[in-house]
Amino acid sequence: xxxxxxxxxxxxxxxxxxxxxxxxxxxxxxxxxxxxxxxxxxxxxxxxxxxxxxxxxxxxxxxxxxxxxxxxxxxxxxxxxxxxxxxxxxxxxxxxxxxxxxxxxxxxxxxxxxxxxxxxxxxxxxxxxxxxxxxxxxxxxxxxxxxxxxxxxxxxxxxxxxxxxxxxxxxxxxxxxxxxxxxxxxxxxxxxxxxxxxxxxxxxxxxxxxxxxxxxxxxxxxxxxxxxxxxxxxxxxxxxxxxxxxxxxxxxxxxxxxxxxxxxxxxxxxxxxxxxxxxxxxxxxxxxxxxxxxxxxxxxxxxxxxxxxxxxxxxxxxxxxxxxxxxxxxxxxxxxxxxxxxxxxxxxxxxxxxxxxxxxxxxxxxxxxxxxxxxxxxxxxxxxxxxxxxxxxxxxxxxxxxxxxxxxxxxxxxxxxxxxxxxxxxxxxx
Amino acid sequence: xxxxxxxxxxxxxxxxxxxxxxxxxxxxxxxxxxxxxxxxxxxxxxxxxxxxxxxxxxxxxxxxxxxxxxxxxxxxxxxxxxxxxxxxxxxxxxxxxxxxxxxxxxxxxxxxxxxxxxxxxxxxxxxxxxxxxxxxxxxxxxxxxxxxxxxxxxxxxxxxxxxxxxxxxx
Lengths: 430, 170
Hints:
heterodimer, A: alpha+beta, Rieske Iron-sulfur Protein, 2 domains, 10-stranded antiparallel beta sheet, about 30% helix, globular, B: alpha+beta, Nuclear Transport Factor 2, Chain: A, 3 helices, 6 strands
């Protein structure tokens, strides 16, 4: 691998601009897979996807295939999806249940915690002493969970999960408490879509409240409101008041946190009069009382980004996993989040809404994806090698290190690049 | 020989009427007559394209499309918007429908139709795509002018693939 010097990488990020190479250079993409996805905590899956012993769920950390399993000891494990013998990917189904995993190539088997179980015709290895763990599929360096959200880290170095999450951990607390049963479940299938652009474009778009009035004009009704998202909602979010004016978006605010995490302020509450919503409110009030329930119902954040590549929305809750494939190719997986104990109809409406907003046929995301592909192409031009991220607004800093500024500010993206530099320029020990 | 074959002839003519209706139906999409296509649905009709091949219920999991008539109208109004960026330039499609099998329900005016289809799609500047799979319809009698669609389900064989944006119904 061509390794750029830290000086060179640092020169690609200015205080208010980034060089197009960060989106276009395949060698930088390789380094990102190594240094960002190999050093940061990365979202893997939710424990509810592997409820029973033997349950497994396959995903990737960067480009590396991993399996999240529930072992017979009841614990969740995250192991590389690789046979210790000749490197063959062992588990080839996305999810399911298995007593043990068998490699197709030479029939080696592994326990559901990844440990080596059985080597076929082992007598043929007289000089090699097998170790159940070392010659297993290989556990990733670290994994941990918060409210069942499992994150893994390929590096033994760096902060623990709770420290890395910071105030994003509080967000997961808020999601869990908004379920009448106090916990969530990842279920209801997955939306998968692809775009011909760099992975960071989707991450940056999630903190960009400058674009909706223009990119999503076609999905707004008269008066600049987006189509209604939930049954019973009185109207959708206001995209723009008059052409060019985006004050409502500015007022929501964007927040920058340590480790590159960002979130937007919660969308303004819309009145919901549906019977199911009222039943849901009653369930929360029964458990928490009216005052606490009012607080739970106020959505404080929108598009919460767990840098580098996971984001969640609290309104119509779902997990968005941004999966890099190549420097100019990215896939997005959307996993619905079910609030356990809430009226069943609420979740059904949620699924139908995700079809309209976060799917290959979405009335919203399709325009974002179009923008990413056109950016990937436009950045090929050599006339201007710099991407502008200079948009600002008044800001205030909190003692947690969080900075709040205006909704259409590009501060969130600058925050991503501060984290990006930290990962990319840290001594790689090579 | 005086074998009465009238009921077979009735079935044959009925099947032919259904076939003609469905050829016209998918043709409306290719002609971008989306509003006319939507008007073929009953007021409470729906169009469904599952995201999993074995999905039994459009509300138990996410779907590529699960649109009631108001949603179809919203979707197509958007396609008419001058700044629908993801469809500038717009896609062209060609639908083929075949292997049409009609199951008549006794007397109620309802019938179920299973068919196979293929849709080619080309958006200038992008690679041509092809989608294919199975259609299932529930049809009811229209008032005087043929049939109405109570439900149309389109299961493409790669419904659980990772798709580039899809703007037009299968």
